[in-house]
Amino acid sequence: MKIAIIGANEYQAKLILKCRENNIETHVFAWEDGAVGKQYCDFFYDISITEKEKILKKCIEIGVDAVLS
């Protein structure tokens, strides 16, 4: 399973870690500055959470199963 997570602050970091515990591949979208969750995710994309079209395009390319925040 592949999950896209919008944002990488301390709250999303908890979600990323929970996904990791359950062997769920994480694709995280956020600015790199302050992205606490970057160190825990499988794939990180330095794309602002406000750039919906860029995130959507990448999610389609990846073939994610769900999008969370």
TrEMBL record:
Top-level taxon: Bacteria
Name this polypeptide is given: Carbamoyl-phosphate synthase large subunit
